[in-house]
Write a structure and sequence with these properties.
Number of helices: 0
Number of strands: 19
Radius of gyration: 17 Å
Strand content: over 45%
Strand order of the largest sheet: 5-9-8-7-6
Order of helices and strands: EEEEEEEEEEEEEEEEEEE
Low-confidence stretches: none
Shape: globular
Distance between the termini: 10 Å
Helix content: under 10%
Length: about 200
Amino acid sequence: TMTALDGIAYICFGHSKKDYFNDCYTFDEYQGTWSPLKLKGDTPIGRIGHTCVIYDKKLVFFGGKTKEGELLNDVCFIDTQTNTFKQLKDLENSPSPRMYHSAAIVGSKMIIIGGRSEKTICGDIFTFDLKKLEWSKAPIETQSRMYHKLISYKNLLIIIGGTGDKDELDVLDVNTWKFINIEQYGNIPFGISRFA
């Protein structure tokens, strides 16, 4: 993943043809320099297909897949002020282990939508309370999809693309957990997935 905070881009985990990475690099846009991020605390697991969001100066990661093929459902944090890595595993009410899902922040909650689990493409929606460190499942699901993108705007989640049952635009109000019908105009993207 690549995530930007206060003029610094954080590149974390991923893989090459030969290996999975458990390290992170930073790019300082003001200095124009790359540096390895020297982490303290727990040892990160190399992974792909995870997500990363920002909350309270922390990078928050969820899920992914290891080199051995194990799907993950842990929540990990990098405190960007102390460079401390912390992993939370086996949390109550966690989503099933998955990869290629999407994540966004609404207030103090990380929202996870869809992805690929061991047996299926998911359409479930989970919230992780970043203050209480607790999971809960939303009372609604979306169409099953993976490789899609998710952004938040105020109390709305905007979901687009992916592969699965649906690849079109959805807008979800997290206050009511209801989808909003919107009219789309112009050159609507068709069948997009695995995009940035």
